[in-house]
Amino acid sequence: MEKNRALDAFAALSQQTRLDVFRLLIKTGEAGMSAGDISDALGVRQNTMSANLAILSRAGLIRSAREGRSIRYFADMDGLRGLLGFLMEDCCGGNPALCQPVINQLACAC
Known about the structure:
Layout: H1 3-13, H2 16-28, E1 33-34, H3 35-42, H4 46-58, E2 62-67, E3 70-75, H5 77-88, H6 96-106
Antiparallel strand pairs: 1-3, 2-3
């Protein structure tokens, strides 16, 4: 991931509602959630939620799929991996064994 893309992702996550949305979508996994369900779960108005979802999408942190008249949102795990990879790119001064505990904690089967 390039630096400007990482900055976009960090900027998107630096707002409380967007961070809550992203964490919620990570938690829901492959099932994802509709925009209305996300709004209800977090107690946020739908028009406000739409703006926040658009920012997260542009930052490459979430993706969407149309289902009839609604849209289902998912955490973009490739975007998350890219961001984490950017952070750990030069980790541990060239000694990857020092980074292994962090990598093990981040690893998931998703």
